[in-house]
């Protein structure tokens, strides 16, 4: 039982770390213009040798970008909260009870990641100015999609998990 518990905790921590990296790292969109520096764009900044805020990110036209920012931050917070709730329930639950509250929070985090990555996928052309539209998805975008099934599986594991001796 101790090995299963260690695996679940490790799996949850890996999902949380992936969410942090996907939210913070500046590689959601990568543009490699010929003869110039590579431009990395995240949810807040575009960087080549210097960083500058994403154009019009504070306007109504960037509401999609603001939705992605908010849901990624919410997913990261929910994933951290569900880990702390799991630790609390680990010591407070009676034997035989399930980790339902932890599972609900983790499944909400999974839903937020899916919403953020889906919005970014559907609206990527409207996020970037014309000079940045000829790029490719970056590593943070891929990590966001990888963290979606990891948080989903983690939430489902908490639904199945019962407290045992």
Describe it for me?
The protein is built from four helices and five strands; from the N terminus they run αββββααβα. The chain has a five-stranded antiparallel sheet. The chain has helices spanning 2-24, 63-92, 100-127, 139-160; strands at residues 29-31, 39-41, 45-47, 51-53, 136-137. By secondary structure, it is of the alpha+beta class. The mean pLDDT is 85. 62% of the residues lie in helices and 8% in strands. A hairpin with a 3-residue loop joins strand 3 (45-47) and strand 4 (51-53).
In short:
The protein is built from four helices and five strands, in the order H-E-E-E-E-H-H-E-H. It has 165 residues and is α+β, with helices and mostly antiparallel strands. The chain has a five-stranded antiparallel β-sheet.
Q: Specify the structural class.
A: alpha+beta
Radius of gyration from CA coordinates: 18 Å
Into which percent range does the helicity of residues fall?
Answer: 55-70%
Strand content: 5-15%
SSE arrangement:
Layout (H helix, E strand, L loop, with lengths): L1 H23 L4 E3 L7 E3 L3 E3 L3 E3 L9 H30 L7 H28 L8 E2 L1 H22 L5
Antiparallel strand pairs: 1-2, 1-5, 2-3, 3-4
């Amino acid at each position: 039982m101790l090995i299963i518990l260690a695996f679940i905790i490790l799996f949850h921590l890996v999902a949380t770390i992936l969410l942090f990296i996907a939210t913070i790292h500046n590689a959601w969109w990568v543009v490699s213009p010929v003869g110039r520096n590579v431009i990395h764009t995240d949810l807040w900044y575009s960087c080549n040798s210097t960083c500058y805020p994403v154009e019009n990110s504070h306007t109504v036209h960037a509401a999609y970008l603001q939705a992605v920012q908010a849901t990624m931050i919410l997913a990261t917070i929910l994933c951290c909260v569900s880990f702390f709730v799991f630790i609390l329930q680990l010591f407070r639950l009676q034997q035989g009870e399930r980790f339902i509250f932890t599972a609900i929070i983790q499944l909400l985090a999974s839903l937020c990641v899916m919403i953020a990555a889906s919005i970014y996928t559907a609206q990527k052309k409207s996020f970037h100015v014309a000079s940045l539209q000829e790029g490719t998805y970056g590593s943070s975008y891929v990590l966001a999609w990888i963290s979606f099934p990891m948080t989903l599986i983690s939430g489902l594991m908490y639904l199945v998990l019962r407290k045992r001796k």
